[in-house]
Specification:
Radius of gyration: 18 Å
Low-confidence stretches: 138-142
Number of strands: 11
Strand content: 15-25%
Helix content: 25-40%
Order of helices and strands: EHEHEHEHEHEEEEHHHEE
Shape: elongated
């Protein structure tokens, strides 16, 4: 792997922690060694169920996740992570190059998608690009998320706007948390439905618009207006 800039690190200065998931042992070993050489702390798993367990135990900063796994495919692994509230970024690895697979990958919460065969340099650069966007995003201290004067204390389940506490329903809280964790990133209606209402939701997708409206009335009735609609794409939270 060619020399590149130092990879992004965790807020405490330690190496970013990756979980590489693939059932091809030679490829896993190659990726583990190459990514460790590039400066990452690398853990591995050979299947989807093992990946879920390692992710729960080790709290990686990013998953390099093969789509074609023997037990749970990579899309299902990502779906279960998002269902359980885990926002760890995912870079999918796959031999597939069908546009429908690309669409499914991003709908299920993926952050990037690399098609086999790929170069180690390309994968390294893709991982670094995702980590630069996601490591410490929105974080203030501990379990707090913030955008301008809007602050969420996740553990205490409290939301403040301009120092004033705001009362939110559980669904409103989950929606706001998802927006804050992805601050500055445009989220599609389907991504929000999948994450906030879970993947088995059978109702009308207009519920997203309804709850965005609720959020605006409760936390965005003062300047600057933070919850923004990006027409044709979705919603984001950012300082205008």
């Amino acid at each position: 792997m060619a020399d590149t800039e130092a990879p992004p690190s965790r807020p405490d200065g330690s190496p970013a922690r990756l979980l590489v998931v693939d059932d091809e042992e030679p490829l896993v070993e190659l990726l583990r060694d190459a990514l460790r050489f590039a400066g990452f702390d690398v853990r591995t798993a050979r299947g989807g169920l093992e990946a879920l367990q390692v992710a729960a135990d080790q709290h990686p900063d990013l998953l390099v996740l093969d789509v074609n796994l023997p037990d749970l495919d990579g899309f299902e692994v990502c779906r279960r992570l998002r269902r359980d509230g885990d926002d760890v970024p995912v870079v999918f690895l796959t031999a597939r190059d069908d546009p429908d697979d690309l669409r499914v990958g991003f709908t299920r919460g993926g952050d990037d998608y690399v098609t086999k065969p790929f170069s180690l340099e390309e994968l390294n650069l893709r991982i670094q690009a995702v980590l630069r966007r996601t490591l410490g995003r929105g974080a203030v201290t501990g379990e707090q998320l913030a955008c301008a004067d809007l602050v969420m204390d996740v553990d205490a389940r409290r939301v403040l706007r301009g120092g004033q506490e705001v009362s939110l329903s559980p669904t409103e809280f989950r929606l706001l948390r998802y927006l804050l964790v992805n601050r500055g990133r445009v989220l599609s209606k389907s991504q929000i439905l999948d994450h906030v209402w879970q993947y088995d939701f059978d109702g009308d997708g207009s519920i997203v618009e309804t709850y965005i409206s609720y959020l605006r009335k409760k936390v965005d009735h003062v300047e600057p207006r933070l919850v923004q609609t990006v027409r044709g794409f979705g919603y984001t939270i950012r300082v205008p």
